[in-house]
Amino acid sequence: MAASSQLGAFTLDDFEARSGSATSIIRTIAGLYIRHESTPVARGKVLDLAGAAGVSAPAAQTAVSRLIDKSILENTDESRLRVPEAAQAMFARGNRRIFTPRQMRDEDQWCLAAYSLPESMRPVRHQLRKHFGQLGGGLAAAGLWIFPAYLHEEVLQILTALQVRAHATVFIAQTHDFPSTPAEAAKAWWDLDRLEALHHSFLAHAEQLPEADTDEMAYRNYVLMIDAWRTLPYLDPGLPPMMLPEHWPGTSSRRRFAELSEALEHRASHFASRLLRA
């Protein structure tokens, strides 16, 4: 993928949108179903999918327009919608993070990215910090970020997309010598309080899902569950046990996500397929 396309895919990531909002839910529907359609989808069908997930028609209309403005959806002829190329790349990358969340072991390797950018590149420096943070990186020191080694390729993609690869050195390392304890290092490098709150929020949302006694309800539960979950596997890198507080809620939320996915995904997909082809 060219650098401009790579940057587009990373720029389309949105971790500020409020989960449960009409725009966030339809974005989730686009990633789960619309992007897999071989031909553009009638706008009315997109609204039907949104309605089945509990979004009112007026709110859905507004949200679709917003997603078109954000280049997540694209208009074609005859009031049909499709997912454009950059958004396709963003969703494909998201699939790997969302549906296969990883948890490091204490002995796993790390990826360190060190860079120094001149003052003339201050705006790029800001973009680099933003994208590294959204990738799940920890800021160990000025110009030094740390990631699980499994994010190595995505680190390189961001550096390449922002055209700063020549200003950065990337290491893969395993041996560490923390200035204090691993847990204290993690608390200094990542915002663990925020991550903990996000995991508790997801667990609370999962507990409030009603019984899925029909395929339509399974679909609604699945879409809303994914919408509540999808930013977590980005922001939480899956740190090893030695770096996490006791009773870390990420373990429970990953397990609950897997349980709900197994119970709902097939029925939800079946319902969405029937609705799209009705």
From TrEMBL:
Domain Transcriptional repressor PaaX-like C-terminal: 190-273
Single biological process term from Gene Ontology: DNA-templated transcription
Boundaries of every Transcriptional repressor PaaX-like central Cas2-like domain copy: 107-180
Pfam families: PaaX_C, PaaX_M
Organism: Glutamicibacter uratoxydans (Arthrobacter uratoxydans)
Signal peptide: none
Protein name: PaaX family transcriptional regulator
InterPro entries, alphabetized: PaaX-like_central, PaaX_C, PaaX_trns_reg, WH-like_DNA-bd_sf
